[in-house]
Amino acid sequence: MEVQDVLNSIIALFKREMSDKLVGIYVHGSLAMGCFNPYKSDIDLLVVIDTRLTQDHCKAIAKGLLAIHAGMANTRGVELTIVLDENLQNLCYPTPIEFHYSDFHREKYEKDEHYVCGGVNDPDLAAQLVIAYHRGIRLFGKPLREVIPPVDRQLYLKAILYDIEDAAQHIQNSAMYYTLNLCRVLFYLREGGIASKREGGEWGLNNLPTEFRELVQHSLDEYSEATVPTALYKSQYLALFVQYMQEEIYKLAKESESGSARTSI
Q1: Distance (Å, rounded) from C-alpha 220 to C-alpha 197?
Q2: 141-147, long-range: CB within 8 Å, 24+ apart, which pairs?
Q3: pLDDT tens digits for 22-58?
Q4: Disulfide engineering: 180 pairs with which of 69, 74, 155, 197, CB 3.0-4.6 Å?
């Protein structure tokens, strides 16, 4: 199943199951920002509704997404979050969500028809909303800028800092992800731009200390390739990179928090 077929199937699923409760469906992440790699990237989607989901709705949506995934031979998977529009009008952190589906949860949905990841607060959603707001693609419904107000900058900062706080513990096993993600967070704090992982890495090649550029280049190469390279980095080298990046990021985040009034992006 090609990417457009997946998107068409998801639109049909939600039009069938949600009917007039559906406000809009939006693509964010790498697919929206022009750096989608089917072997590395999820198809990231945000669904906005105006009425709370019932258990039956959740089960039907999960069943439909599992059926769509079964036909996705050439793509990695779908990551999808459903949120109430009323929870987007006065956004809090972390943000309440109605339903979440991802490759991580897929096996649980497959094994237990009553399993639902929902009714929780999502610390990543504020960052996803900013990407969807500024660079997302509308699949169905109203333009997102007509649905939600701009996101408060401090909420966005909290979300992107949450995503890198465990980098030291996990970069050895997920070097590409954390390397490029750290780059795009630092890019935002220095330049103010909303970047993809690839764009963050490309910025890092020209702006980070020389000793880290080989790591960034290798991560960009891995992000673009279908296969995982065999070259490995030493733990100490990765640790030095994380230490440098987090020191820079947290210093700038602290200055931003203490030196400015509440602003939106």
Answers
A1: 9
A2: 141/22, 141/23, 141/24, 141/25, 141/48, 142/23, 142/24, 143/24, 144/24, 144/26, 144/46, 144/48, 147/23, 147/24, 147/48, 147/85, 147/88
A3: 999 999 999 999 999 988 899 999 999 999 999 999 9
A4: 197
Angle between helices 55-70 and 103-111 (to 10 degrees): 110
- Domain parsing of the chain, residue ranges: 3-151, 163-259
Enter the DSSP assignment of 37. -
Are 66 and 30 contacting, i.e. CB atoms less than 8 angstroms apart? no
Closest C-alpha to 164, from 92, 246, 253: 246
Which tokens belong to 168?
Answer: 């030291």
pLDDT tier at 226, thresholds 50, 70, 90: low
In the sheet that 77-84 helps form, which strands lie side by side, from edge to edge?
Answer: 99-101, 77-84, 42-49, 22-28, 137-141
The angle subtended at Cα 17 by Cα 79 and Cα 102, nearest 5°, is 15
Dist. CA 26–CA 47, nearest whole Å: 6
Is CATH 3.30.460 what the domain over 3-151 is classified as, yes or no? yes
Q: What is the pTM of this model?
A: 0.94
Could you report the per-residue pLDDT of 194-218, keeping only the tens digit for each? 999 999 999 999 999 999 999 999 9
pLDDT in tens, 68-121: 999 997 678 999 999 999 999 989 999 999 999 999 999 999 999 999 999 999
Mean pLDDT of 227-253: 84
- The span from the CA of 143 to the CA of 40, in Å, is 28
Q: Closest Cα partner for 26 from 51, 49, 5?
A: 49
Q: Which amino acid is at 244?
A: Y
